[in-house]
Amino acid sequence: MVFINLRWSSNMHLIQLVYASRLVGDESVLHSIHSHAVRNNTAHVITGKLLYCSGRFLQVLEGEPAQVHRTFEHIKADPRHSDVTLLMEQAISERAYAHWNMGFRHVQEQELEQYPAYKAYFKDDFSALQIQPLIALEIINTFV
Ligand SMILES: Cc1cc2nc3c(=O)[nH]c(=O)nc-3n(C[C@H](O)[C@H](O)[C@H](O)COP(=O)(O)O)c2cc1C
Questions:
Q1: How many CB atoms lie within 10 A of CB 20?
Q2: What are the residue boundaries of the BLUF domain, all occurrences included (predicted)?
């Protein structure tokens, strides 16, 4: 059923949206955030990936514009994170993450040791506004 929906949506206008945010509270909410995202995104034919590391989220969402915008409005209003900063929104001709209703990875801080260039992005004092969108996508794709 999902497969049929994805095929259908591949002929439609699609967008991809990338944002960064900061976790509010403790990491015990991560599992619930992910399972709700998978359930809702399957229903709304939204695909993408979510990365969490050291208090910061990076997420890429893709799908039909109205669905992505609606989901992003819900996400922005979610009290489990703050400083939700839109990094990029672009039209795409096909999905990059067609098989992921929401891939998720909790990246441990130690894993960043192998990627010194990425470490600064997860420091407390690093503003999301300084994150280059393509670097954000690169980080997501490296780990998730
Ligand atoms: C970092 C983060 C990522 C999220 N990603 C998604 C997502 O991809 N899709 C989604 O529907 N909800 C996502 N949510 C949850 C939404 O903010 C919101 O709780 C949910 O859409 C409400 O759905 P419900 O009314 O079915 O409970 C995310 C929340 C957070 C904090």
A1: 25
A2: 14-103
